Amino acid sequence: MKKYSIGEVGRLLKLKPHVLRYWEREFPFVKPKRNLTGRRVYTEREIQILFRLKYLLHEKKLTLEGAKQRIWEEIEGHEIDMKLSVQEIRGELLDILTRVNDQKPPEQS
Asked: Is 35 helix (H, G, I), strand (E, B) or coil?
């Protein structure tokens, strides 16, 4: 997974690094890790969230609080969808396992 520096993210989003640092303080879901030298490194997921945040603030003209609430709702909805997907996959795997076990010939001693 590729990691991006604050400068690279700033160029992608057409934002200055101080704006990204400010958003990092204001939005708890934007918390880039730091590398061994202490520099911020952003994941692709964080960049997606930042693009969404920029859209909500600059295009939709939401307040910081409004954008924060909207993104929390979207993140929580996504997590619920993922949990349902995992449960569905788990159910399908258990069904397959049951069918495979039912088809096994009895082991001979």
From this structure: coil
Average of per-residue pLDDT across 66-71: 91
Give residue 53's identity as a one-letter amino acid code. Answer: L
- Angle between helix 6-13 and 44-54 (nearest 10): 40
Q: How many CA atoms lie within 13 A of 69 on its CB side?
A: 5
The top-level CATH class assigned to 6-103 is mainly alpha
Reported confidence tier of residue 104, pLDDT bands at 50, 70, 90:
low
HSE-CB of 36 using CA atoms within 13 angstroms: 0
Task: Report, as an integer, the average pLDDT of 27-55.
Answer: 92
pTM: 0.68
The domain segmentation of the chain, as residue ranges, is: 6-103
